[in-house]
Amino acid sequence: MKPIICLTILLLSFASFAFCEEYKSSLDYIEKTNKLWGVSECIVNMDKSITFVDRKNSGVGVYLFIRDDKGGFLDKVTLKPGESFELMDGHHAFITYKYQGIEDEKIIIEVTDKFDARSFGDDIKIEKKTVTILPYKDEDSIT
Q1: For 110-121, what is each residue's pLDDT tens digit?
Q2: How do residues 76-89 score in pLDDT, each as one tens digit?
Q3: What is the domain count for the chain?
Q4: Strands across the sheet with 39-44, in order?
Q5: Residues 91, 117: Cα–Cα separation, whole Å
Q6: Would residue 48 be called left, alpha or beta, if left means φ above 0 and alpha means ψ between -120 and 50 degrees?
Q7: Is residue 143 one of the residues assigned to a domain?
Q8: For residue range 14-44, what is the model confidence (pLDDT) as tens digits?
Q9: How do 93-103 and 136-137 pair as beta strands?
Q10: Which residues neighbour 118 within 8 Å (Cβ) at sequence distance 6 or greater?
Q11: Domain range for 42
């Protein structure tokens, strides 16, 4: 049963990416849309921490999950500068967002996008870049 669930999640993850063929990668998506892959809200709090809300309903990256320290899943995570969290599909796709700080009202985030394609006969692909985005809240998000 587990292989079927993993395969279903993987296929849905690929389907999510296929709907946005105009983007070459998650980093390309972030740079073109000013939104993080798999994150429906990016909110600046009064103490300059940032709350990131997992995309639960629809859109790009909807099948990735925020994992907590105990192996469970979170709906959202709040970070201070220097802290990070990871979104994953549980097997192949891993995106780490490390919150660097705020400058000129823009959020600075180091993005590490890792895709493990070894089960497809390829290698592990890692792309890393620091990006800046504005805070946002998608209409279809939950809080």
Answers
A1: 999 998 888 888
A2: 999 999 999 999 88
A3: 1
A4: 76-79, 50-54, 39-44, 136-137
A5: 10
A6: left
A7: no
A8: 444 444 567 888 899 999 999 999 999 999 9
A9: unpaired
A10: 124
A11: 2-137
